[in-house]
Design brief:
Low-confidence stretches: none
Distance between the termini: 35 Å
Structural class: alpha/beta
Strand order of the largest sheet: 1-2-3-4-5-6-7-8
Strand content: 5-15%
Mean pLDDT: 97
Number of helices: 12
CATH architecture: Alpha-Beta Barrel
Shape: globular
Largest sheet: 8 strands, parallel, barrel
Number of domains: 1
Helix content: 40-55%
CATH class: Alpha Beta
C-alpha cells in the first residue's frame, strides 16, 4: 500500500511556448526524491491535467516514471469527464509503468451516484492497475457519496480514495467501514494531519511541492500516531497551507515553486499567474518554513 506524503506535482512549462519544461520536471522529480517525498502524483489536477492533451499527458507520466526509476512510487493522474478518455489515459499509465492511477470524479457533467459507480467500474474492468478514487466536489461540482465509495471499494483494483472535502467525519466513517486494504488519503492539506491520525494512509498534497521534507516528516509522524510531533510540524506549515489557496490551485503553488528557483512561473490559460496582491503573503509563508 502506498502511504505517506504524496506530492501532487506541478507541471513546469516554458514561459514563452508553454510547452512542458522537461529539464525542470527532471529537477523536480530528483528534488522530491532527495527531500524524502514518499510518492509522486504525475499530472493530477494540480499538474494542470485539464490543459494537457492526451498524448502530452501520457508523455509526462512516462517521463516521471522513467526519471523516478523505481526509487519511489508514481501515481498517474488519469481521470477525465469522459469514461472512454479516462480508460485511454489509465491504459497509457499502466503501459508507462506507473504504480497506480488517481481518477478524479467526472467534472461538469454531474453524473448520478449510479453513473459514478459505473464510470469507475468500467475503468477498473478495462485496465488492471491499482486505482485511487478522487473526490473534490469544490472543483468538480460532483460529490461521490460514501455509500458509492464503499460499493467501489469492493472492486479488487480500486484500492483507495483521495478525499478532498476536508470533512473529517466523512473520512472517519470511510476508514472505519472500508476494507482493511482500502486506503483513505487526505486531499486537503489543512486537515490532513487529523485524517492520518485517525487511520488515513497519507496526504496527496499541494503543500509538499514547496515543503517536501517537512510534509514527509509530518505525514510519517501522523501515520505512526505521534500526534505531538505531527502537530508541531503542521503548525509550522499552517501559513503555507493557507497561502497555497489564496487563488485557485495551482496558481499560488507554481509561483511559490518558481521562487525556490526550481522552475519558471508559467501556466496555461485560462489559469493566470498569481496576482501581485498575494505575493507578500505567499513569500511570508515560504519564509516561515525556513525560520528557526
Amino acid at each position: 500500500m502506498i502511504s505517506g506524503s504524496l506530492v501532487a506535482l506541478v507541471t513546469p512549462m516554458h514561459p514563452d511556448s508553454l510547452d512542458v519544461d522537461w529539464d525542470a520536471l527532471k529537477r523536480l522529480v530528483e528534488w522530491h526524491i532527495e527531500q524524502g517525498t514518499d510518492g509522486i502524483v504525475a499530472v493530477g489536477t494540480t499538474g494542470e491535467s485539464a490543459t494537457l492533451g492526451v498524448s502530452e499527458h501520457s508523455s509526462v507520466i512516462r517521463f516521471v516514471v522513467d526519471q523516478a526509476a523505481n526509487r519511489i512510487p508514481i501515481i498517474a493522474g488519469t481521470g477525465a469527464n469522459s469514461t472512454a478518455e479516462a480508460i485511454v489515459l489509465t491504459r497509457a499509465a499502466k503501459e508507462a509503468g506507473a504504480d497506480a492511477c488517481l481518477l478524479v470524479t467526472p467534472y461538469y457533467n454531474k453524473p448520478t451516484q449510479e453513473g459514478l459507480f459505473l464510470h469507475y467500474q468500467a475503468i477498473a474492468d478495462a485496465v488492471d492497475i491499482d486505482q485511487i478514487l478522487y473526490n473534490v466536489p469544490g472543483r468538480t461540482a460532483c460529490d461521490m457519496q460514501p455509500e458509492t465509495v464503499l460499493r467501489l471499494a469492493a472492486i479488487k483494483n480500486i484500492v483507495g480514495i483521495k478525499e478532498a472535502t476536508g470533512d473529517l467525519a466523512r473520512a472517519k466513517s470511510l476508514i472505519e467501514q472500508s476494507p482493511v486494504d482500502f486506503a483513505v488519503y487526505s486531499g486537503d492539506d489543512h486537515s490532513a494531519r487529523e485524517l492520518m491520525l485517525m487511520g488515513g494512509k497519507g496526504d496527496i498534497s499541494v503543500t509538499a511541492n514547496v515543503a517536501p521534507k517537512l510534509m514527509a516528516e509530518m505525514c510519517a509522524a501522523a501515520i505512526a500516531g505521534d500526534s505531538t510531533t505531527a502537530q508541531a510540524i503542521d503548525m509550522r506549515l499552517a501559513a503555507l497551507h493557507d497561502a497555497m489557496f489564496v487563488e485557485a490551485n495551482p496558481i499560488p503553488v507554481k509561483w511559490a515553486v518558481s521562487q525556490l528557483g526550481l522552475m519558471s512561473n508559467a501556466l496555461r490559460l485560462p489559469m493566470t499567474p498569481l496576482s501581485t496582491e498575494h505575493h507578500a503573503q505567499v513569500r511570508s509563508a515560504l519564509e516561515s518554513i525556513t525560520a528557526n
